[in-house]
Every structure is written in C-alpha cells, then in structure tokens.
Amino acid sequence: MFVRALLFSTAFLLSFTAAAGHLDVHQLMSLVPEPNIKPTYGGPDNKTYKSGGIGILVYDGGNATDALGPHQVFSSAGLRPLLISASKNAEGNYKKYITFNNGLTIRANRTIANTKDLEVLVVPGGAFETIQMAHNTEVLNWIKAIDKNTVYTTSVCTGSWILGAAGLLQGKNATSNWYRADELLTHFGATPQSLSRYVFDGKLVTANGVTGGIDMALAIVKKVFSHDLNNGKDYTQAVMLDLQYDPKPPVPGGSIAKTEPTVFDAMQFMYDFYDLANTVKQIPIQ
C-alpha cells in the first residue's frame, strides 16, 4: 500500500511503539496476505507476469467505479490488481484500451485470452453492455474456468448478471444493484440479500451498486490479513486511512431505505422505460 512506499528513518522505526493488542510499524509494513492473492512474477527482472493475482474484468461500456473502486482498494493494500480486457476490436482481437460508460479510457494489463488463473476475480457491472457480456459465451466460459481455482469470485453492482449467466449464483445468497434486485437475482437462481452492502457465500462475494465494491474489496482485504493481532482490523484501517475513506454524503440517500419514495419511483420508472428488467430476464443461464 502507499504506506509501504514511504521511506521511514531508522530512528522513527525504533521510536514507534504500538498500543497493546495492535500492530507496530514493523508488523504493519511486513504483513503478507494469507492466502497469498498477489500475482506471481518472474523473468530476469522479476517483472514478467506468470500467473494468479486479483483480476478485474473490464469491458467497453462498463461502470468505471465498479472496476476502479476495488482496484484502488487492492492497490492501496499492496495486492497489485490487474485489469483484464474482455472486449474485442473490429478485427476480433482483444483490446488493450477500454472505454467505460462515463467516457473514461483506461489501458488493460491483460486479456482473458492470456490469463488462465486468478486468486480473485472481480466482475463489474453497467447496463446494456453488461447484458451483452452476459450473452457472451466466450467470456462466460472463461469466468467458469477461472472460478474453478479462485479464492474469491466476486461481482460489483450488475456484474452479478454476468455471474448469474455463468450459473454461479444458483443456490447462493447474493446482492446486486438496487434496481429490481430481488426479482433479477431470483431469475439467476440466487437467494436475494439485496439490502446487504456485500454478501459472502463461500467463495462467492457479491456487492450491491457501484460504491458497494469499495466496501467489498475492504472486506476481502480484512479477511486475507486476518492473521494479524486483531483479525485484520489494523491493516484494513491503514488502507482506509490511506484512502481517507470515511463517507459522509451531503444528504441521506444511496439506498432504497434512505431515498425519498418519489425519487425512488422516478429512478425505477426511468430504468423500466428502457425495459431493462425484462431484457435481463431473457439472459440464458449456462
């Protein structure tokens, strides 16, 4: 994480004493995840990717924060996440550059064609482009193959539709984006937990809409560093402080329970106008 990039003086390190039951600076700086979910590198310069790690699926039209929120959390935790392209160009080759639905263009580290195994898979959502991905047999087959050996297979927001299309939600507790979450999760065979910010069911982890992916990523950080003195709390707080993550929105909202009914009705009407729910229900399940 960013803290690890700082150069501490010997005098400072020797003078720092942690409170009883908490990590001291030496422990905080030397922790490694268990299990190790960082990618493996090799080659003469030890910079050639070999296998594994955290892979965040990216595709044209996906939601930027769905992907980049978890990416920043994992990066701050020193876990070196990878962005993995699932979109092709006109020639049928996987693209290096992906444009999200807000117009932001990023460069992917790898593609699904050259990534064969991961410890953690993150599948972000979006809207109609996400539905297209949920119909993409090549992508779904890759997800199922990756899922066989993951420590965690996860989704953010409507990324659950893609996992659902791959058959990975059947019989699982799951959450998703607020929009008609219960009926759409039920379509994919899940038991809806739509009021939950994120849900762990074995190695399947689902987050609700957009910023829920940040909380989910922090929860994964806490789990893989839970072997420290206080079940991962100190290390997770270090990451949160690095991000200064302490949300205080200017007005109540952000969930169905906290949103004015008239605002909720207007938002649901907007999505219904595009017949989004019925389009999702037409996604076949592998």
Could you characterize the architecture of this molecule?
The chain has a single domain (37-281), classed as Rossmann fold, CATH 3.40.50.880. The protein contains twelve helices and 13 strands. The strands form four sheets. The chain has a seven-stranded mixed β-sheet, sandwiched between helices. Strands 1-2 form a two-stranded antiparallel ribbon. Strands 5-6 form a two-stranded antiparallel sheet. It has helices at residues 2-5, 10-15, 25-30, 64-76, 128-134, 137-147, 159-165, 181-187, 212-224, 233-243, 261-273, 276-281, and strands spanning 40-42, 48-51, 54-58, 82-85, 97-99, 105-107, 110-111, 120-123, 152-156, 173-174, 191-192, 198-201, 204-207. It has 286 residues and is α/β, with parallel strands linked by helices.
